[in-house]
Write a structure and sequence with these properties.
Layout (H helix, E strand, L loop, with lengths): L2 E6 L11 H4 L4 H15 L2 E6 L3 H17 L2 E7 L8 H10 L3 E5 L21 E4 L4 H15 L1
Parallel strand pairs: 1-2, 1-3, 3-4, 4-5
Helix pairs in contact: 2-5, 3-4
Keywords: Amino-acid biosynthesis, Aromatic amino acid biosynthesis, Lyase
GO molecular function: 3-dehydroquinate dehydratase activity
Function: Catalyzes a trans-dehydration via an enolate intermediate.
Length: 150
């Protein structure tokens, strides 16, 4: 069975306790369970990761590129957190590794501080899900499968 990688950037390990009025009360473990359940109904496994370190995320994107070429990974659902607005390196990794990415944000970043309105990831993403809460991960998984399998 092929898999989908779900990547989470900095501070997402604090879900459920960090600004619940913005990010909700679900924990990252809850998100992982939702992702596994959603992927299973579509015939996929989930490789779930979170890191507060940009280089670790880049390494995982490079790994995803290799696994996509091997035919064992469909693509990546990625919530880059604050790196969305700062990381040219993540942009370059996605582009360079030729990875299909669905960018996900729990909150509506466009309704927040102006520095959150620009994404270095969106221009290399296959699609973007914004402001749908943690349900956005499920929508990202469904969208990735729909986009790449139809």
């Amino acid at each position: 069975m092929s898999s989908i990688m779900v990547l989470n950037g900095p501070n997402l390990n604090l879900l459920g306790t960090r600004e619940p009025e913005t990010y909700g009360h679900e924990t990252l473990a809850d998100v992982e369970t939702m992702c596994r359940d959603a992927a299973k109904t579509l015939g996929y496994d989930i490789d779930f990761h979170q890191s507060n370190h940009e280089g670790v995320l880049i390494d995982l994107i490079h790994e995803a590129g290799r696994r996509i070429k091997e035919g064992v990974l469909l693509g990546v659902v990625f919530n880059p957190g604050a790196y969305t607005h700062t990381s040219i390196a993540l942009h370059d990794a996605i582009k360079g590794a030729d990875v299909s990415v669905i960018e996900v944000h729990i909150s509506n970043v466009h309704a927040r501080e102006s520095f959150r309105h620009h994404s270095y990831i969106s221009s290399v993403a296959t699609g973007v899900v914004v402001g749908m809460g943690v349900q956005g991960y499920v929508l990202g998984i469904q969208g990735l499968v729909h986009k790449l399998k139809n």
